[in-house]
Amino acid sequence: MIRVATVADCVQNPPRNGVACGRGFTVEHMSKGEQMQEQKMPVVAVVLAAGFGTRFDENNPKQLVSVGGKPIVCWSIEAFERNDRVSDIIVVVNERVSNMVNMLIDEAGYTKVRAVIPGGSERVDSTRSALDLLKQAGIPDGAKILIHDSVRPFVEQQSIDGCIDSLDQFNAATVAYASTDTILLTEDLGERKVVRSVPDRTNAFRAQTPQAFRFGTITKAYELATADPDFHPTDHTRVVVDYLPNEPVAIVAGSETNLKITTQADMPIAENIARSLDPEHAKQEAKARMHAVFAEAFSQMHKH
Fold first, then answer.
1. pTM of the entire predicted model
2. What is the distance between the alpha carbons of residues 137 and 11, in angstroms, rounded to a whole number?
3. Could you give phi then psi for residue 168, rounded to 5 degrees?
4. What percent of the chain has pLDDT over 70?
5. DSSP for 127-149, written as a single string
6. Residues in CB range of 117: below 8 A, 6 or more apart
7. Pick from 132, 133, 141, 128: nearest CA to 113
8. Burial code of 225-242, b = ≥16 C-beta within 10 A, e = fewer?
9. Are residues 72 and 37 in contact, defined by beta-carbon separation less than 8 angstroms?
């Protein structure tokens, strides 16, 4: 019988040829290549929650801020937890929130979270930490890796599925949302920014997450990038585009609600999205709209 190979397949206690992971797991090398041929490749979600959110509130880590009655990081973990095609979740955190995130995971009973590991001072360091863990676990090059920013709590299931499906044809894919605004590319002229070019809006997209890669592709891109002293990416897709220029990156349809919570100004929008995702609240809103429509129609009838 075919079964899904997961990071859990790499876990054994007591340790044997392994390294300790953040949640008491011990990751060892997976079975031999010929055995892996008989298994479906793992689909691993890497949730990045190591940022300090200085633009939000340096005294209140935004990963832990409640939206719709639930911490932001939990929204993101749950999106992958409830997707039947995702086999494993790795959460990358900073030391400041590590204990709380572990407690939230335990309380929620997320069964797919294999490890909570420390990140670095920059996003690239956090990503490397996750990739290093997976490499030590013996994850095969063909595994599908979905890297997601934890402060995008409302990623849709169809975007996650789109990433997984795209990796059947491509080695890299990213969720993106078509831009409705005209994008301006600029350059410096003295102390001012001036417009250098205006790309065709039909080809302009706003990058979102998750961004998905075959494990061998993203690790190769990062290996090449690490050797570059000018390597300072803010986006995983950029790493592949810059260092594996012949590797096409597929676009997966994103959504307006796949909001990145960056500042306090984003919170009212996030609360509105959270309310819209609450079935009971949505039902009440629909009923209220229907009453308003009937009330308006009734009023118009009496005017005539």
1. 0.81
2. 8
3. -75, -25
4. 76
5. HHHHHHHHHHTT--TT-EEEEEE
6. 21, 22, 90, 91, 92, 93, 129, 130, 133
7. 133
8. beeeeeeebebbbbbbbe
9. no
